[in-house]
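User: Hi! I'm working on a homework problem where we have to compare a predicted structure to a textbook description. Could you give me the structure for the chain below?
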Amino acid sequence: MDVPVPPPVLNDFRVLEYAIVDETVQYTGRLHLYANDERIGPVPRLAVCEHLFNGDLLLLHCNEEWEVLAVQAWNGPAGSPTLSIDEIKHRAEDFYRGISAKWTALGTSMEEAKAYYEKQPGTDHE
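Assistant: Happy to help. Predicted structure tokens:
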């Protein structure tokens, strides 16, 4: 079976590491994340990402096709900044027990990610 690898960029976020949620991972239900006034439950794909233009680190919750369903960020005024990939992965373990063993680095440089982003239809190239 082929491993569903994400593209190097999801929306305007460079994928640093990704994880496939399989039957060995338990969704804890502790996550209270909303998108469009709807609570996001368990998802099959997670990605630790870096914003292409401001460098913020965050966790993307994605469907099986790597479409972003929700963005989990801790850099807002109400939260303490997330400073490392390891911290994000540690926080993800609170919501997806067993996910720590699933992370895979993608290895795309920032230059490669920006070049990929520029080639995508509908991106603002200004």
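For your comparison, note the following. The chain has two helices and ten strands. The mean pLDDT is 90. Good luck with the assignment!
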